[in-house]
Design a protein that fits this description.
Elements: H1 10-13, H2 18-29, H3 34-40, H4 48-52, E1 63-72, E2 77-84, E3 95-100, E4 103-110, H5 115-121, E5 123-129, H6 134-141, E6 148-154, E7 168-175, H7 179-196, E8 206-214, H8 223-232, E9 237-243, E10 258-260, H9 265-269, E11 277-283, H10 285-297, E12 305-309
Parallel strand pairs: 7-8, 7-11, 8-9, 9-10, 11-12
Antiparallel strand pairs: 1-2, 1-6, 2-5, 3-4, 3-6
Helix pairs in contact: 2-3
Pfam families: NAD_binding_1
GO molecular function, one term: oxidoreductase activity
Protein name: Oxidoreductase NAD-binding domain-containing protein 1
């Protein structure tokens, strides 16, 4: 994997608001206390993402990155492709603290790409919905190809199996932009299933079903890639896509996978096996709380229901 030259000279060229700049210098020049970094970010209004995730696992390292592509995923969502430092690593489902030069607030965005893409191309991807929150607003109004940022990986919500693990059936349930970490997990599962073809018997025993709800088909992000993965591995991967506020006809390509209305309890029941199912939920807190209760009512143990709430 080749390394863009800017990544090896970040200490000379990168400028961040004071607390973030200090942490980046510590990463490049020596150890640094994350606790002292947080203490410097004293304003509550500056720490919304950092405060909400303060108890989550974080890597110590903060890495420079450069935007190398911007895609309009929908009318409200932009997908960034970022070239990252060769030491950057993450597990499918994790997020990054996102530091922007000149922007005091720190963003928090889940990766929507797989670790395999990072390994193959040195690229990670983030899909960010438009809001007036400064990091998201910057991405939608000021970010360009060539923009430089810094990222630190965190999160306890991930899927990182080994070939020796017991057979597992993933139930992935997403609402809106909550698809991002689950799409990363689905892509990672697809990569592992492809690896099975050349593994010489060291198979990953994985299957997955995705339930994904959005307002309309345009806001069903990544739907073409999701459907392609399901068609590539029809005995291992499946999906149900839901639209809650669409009255016009659905395009023919996703039409067989589209359901009108919200995710129903019975749609989940068919994919719950208390011994094999591992459920990942990501979406608005009310949705997470309601579905968690439903899944436990179906007999799925609480420790097999993992969730990420995004506000």
């Amino acid at each position: 994997m080749s390394t863009p030259c800017f990544l090896s000279s970040a200490a000379r060229s990168f400028s961040l608001p004071c607390p973030a700049a200090r942490l980046l210098r510590c990463r490049l020049l020596g150890p640094c206390s994350v606790t002292s970094f947080r203490r410097n970010m004293s304003s509550k209004s500056q720490m919304d993402h950092l405060e909400r995730t303060a108890s989550n696992y974080r890597q110590n390292a903060l890495y420079p990155a450069q935007v190398c592509g911007i895609i309009n995923e929908s009318e409200t969502v932009k997908r960034l492709r970022l070239a990252v430092h060769p030491d950057f690593s993450f597990k499918a489902g994790q997020w990054v603290d996102f530091f922007i030069p000149g922007v005091e607030k720190v963003g928090g965005f889940s990766m929507c790409s797989s670790p395999g893409l990072l390994q193959r191309e040195g690229i990670v991807e983030l899909a960010v919905k438009y809001t007036k929150h400064p990091p998201a607003h910057w991405i939608h109004t000021m970010c360009t190809v060539g923009s430089r940022v810094a990222m630190r990986v965190g999160g306890d919500f991930f899927f990182n199996p080994t070939p020796s693990d017991p057979s597992v059936h993933l139930l992935l349930v997403a609402g809106g932009v909550g698809i991002n970490p689950l799409y990363s997990i689905l892509l990672h599962s697809t990569d592992l299933l492809r690896l099975n073809r050349t593994s010489g018997g060291r198979d990953y025993n994985i299957s997955a079903h995705l339930c994904y709800s959005a307002k309309n088909t345009q806001e069903l992000l990544f739907k073409s890639s999701i459907i392609e993965a399901c068609r590539e591995f029809p005995d291992k991967l499946s999906c149900d896509l839901y639209v809650t506020q669409q009255s016009i006809d659905v395009d023919s390509h996703p039409q067989p996978f589209i359901n009108h209305g919200r995710i129903a309890d019975e749609d989940l029941r068919a994919h719950v096996d208390p011994q094999r199912t591992l459920c990942f939920l990501c979406g608005p807190p009310p949705m997470i709380e309601a579905l968690s209760k439903t899944l436990m009512d179906f007999g799925l143990p609480k420790d097999r229901i993992l969730f990420e709430k995004w506000w």
